[in-house]
Amino acid sequence: MSVEYLPYSQRPEWVDVTPIPQDDGPNPLVPIAYSRDYRDTMDYFRALIRTKEKSHRALELTADIIEMNPAHYTVWGYRQDILFSLNADLHKELDFIDSIASEQAKNYQVWHHRQVVVDKLGEYERELPFINRILEEDSKNYQAWSYRQWVVTRFGLYEREMEYTDDLLVIDMRNNSAWNYRYFIFSSFPRTEEEIESEVEFTKRKTEMAPNNSSPWSYLEAVLKMGNRPLKDVESFAQKLREQKVQSPHLLSFFIDMYEEEAKTTKQPINSEALQMCEDLAERVDVIRQNYWRFRKSNLERLCK
């Protein structure tokens, strides 16, 4: 809080409220060294909770507490109750959230509160621009991406979201969050064979540009499965990368997945190359996960019988 902070105990408009100190019991093991200002605000907050007061001054008190402790979910929850009880201007509340989010962009409570307010307000016009600003600062902010999914679903704003991920992947094709969000959008509706094929080709181009990034490989497999297409449909693409001597654990992993899928579909023994690839990954290409690849190999060996 500012050095100009005036304790609530010294504010004439709060003279009718008796603060309630925190009770940690007679012998607290590790008492928290709260600041004087925070202790003061919380003492008055507990008093309001006890009397269930929902007023403009209570709203101001929650704002002071949130400024000091933006993760205090009880205060956020009570603030929502006050807002709705007073039928307060929720546009102003979004302004308040904007100011907090500028410094607390990864705070779950901030995003949840915004979701509650926007849901109540029923308006979305400022939400995607707000999220865009946050993602410009940190393109992998989990809370922002999660909230974007909610906004798009709540208000049906799917139309331009594929284009949005196009732009992000041009800037950084290794943006795993953008790939994840792209799949969320793409899988939200049934897709035609033409759309599936177009998305497969898009993904192949991105994969060629960054074959050591796991996201496009995972995305490629997911889109093929979404279209009920076997991984073998893009075998020639993967084989071309092998012929170009691309050293990527994800390329080898794709082949292993393809051989496994083929063996299970045809009820035939798995291609022995899959076992050799597991060994190559364990011994040379992806040594840090050697235990996983040996485990994978042991499972695949059952498909040789």
From TrEMBL:
GO cellular component, one term: protein farnesyltransferase complex
Swiss-Prot/TrEMBL cofactor(s): Mg(2+)
Molecular function GO terms recorded: CAAX-protein geranylgeranyltransferase activity; protein farnesyltransferase activity
Keyword Repeat among record annotations: yes
Enzyme class: transferase
EC assignment: 2.5.1.58, 2.5.1.59
Gene3D superfamilies cross-referenced by the UniProt entry: Protein prenylyltransferase (1.25.40.120)
Family: Belongs to the protein prenyltransferase subunit alpha family.
PANTHER family, per database record: PROTEIN FARNESYLTRANSFERASE ALPHA SUBUNIT/RAB GERANYLGERANYL TRANSFERASE ALPHA SUBUNIT (PTHR11129), PROTEIN FARNESYLTRANSFERASE_GERANYLGERANYLTRANSFERASE TYPE-1 SUBUNIT ALPHA (PTHR11129:SF1)
Record protein name field: Protein farnesyltransferase/geranylgeranyltransferase type-1 subunit alpha
Organism, as annotated: Apophysomyces ossiformis
